[in-house]
Design goal:
Blueprint lengths: L4 E3 L1 H9 L4 H12 L2 E4 H9 L4 H11 L3 E3 L3 H16 L6 H13 L2 E3 L12 E2 L4
Helix pairs in contact: 1-2, 5-6
Length: 130
C-alpha cells in the first residue's frame, strides 16, 4: 500500500465546511484510496469544535473506519525533543501540531495540512495535492 497520510485538523475543517473545495475533493480521493490515518490529537481537535450532538455523531461516524495511529511513549518523547529543538531555533509551534508531526515521523506517514507550522518541522513529509 502507498504511504499513509495523516489529514491534519485544518484539512478536516475544510472538508466538513465546504465539500466542493479542492482540499475536500482531494481528501475524498484519499479516503476512497484507504490511505488516510487518524491521530488522537486530530480527533480531539475536531470534536472540540463541533456545534452539537448531531454534528459530533457525524464526525465520529466519518472517522470510525480510519486507521488509528496510537500515541506511545516514543511519540511523546519525540514530540518533546522536537519542540525543544525548534524553540532553541526561535520557533514556537503549538504542541498539538508537534504531536501530530511526531506521530507522522514515528509511523512513517505524510501530513496533509493547510497549516504552515508543519513546514518548519525537520524531516516531516508533507502531502501536497497534485
Amino acid at each position: 500500500m502507498s504511504t499513509r497520510i495523516i489529514a491534519d485538523t485544518s484539512v478536516w475543517i475544510e472538508f466538513f465546511r465546504d465539500e466542493k473545495s479542492l482540499i475536500s475533493i482531494h481528501l475524498q480521493a484519499l479516503l476512497r484510496s484507504g490511505r488516510v490515518a487518524l491521530t488522537g490529537m486530530v480527533l480531539a481537535e475536531i470534536l472540540q469544535g463541533v456545534k452539537g450532538v448531531r454534528e459530533a455523531a457525524l464526525v465520529r461516524r466519518s472517522m470510525e473506519p480510519l486507521l488509528f495511529m496510537e500515541t506511545n511513549r516514543e511519540v511523546w518523547q519525540t514530540a518533546g525533543e522536537m519542540s525543544a529543538a525548534l524553540r532553541r531555533k526561535g520557533l514556537t509551534i503549538p504542541l498539538s501540531d508537534i504531536l501530530i508531526a511526531s506521530v507522522a515521523l514515528n509511523k512513517d506517514c505524510e501530513v496533509f495540512t493547510t497549516d504552515p507550522h508543519f513546514e518548519s518541522i525537520p524531516g516531516l513529509s508533507l502531502h501536497k495535492p497534485a
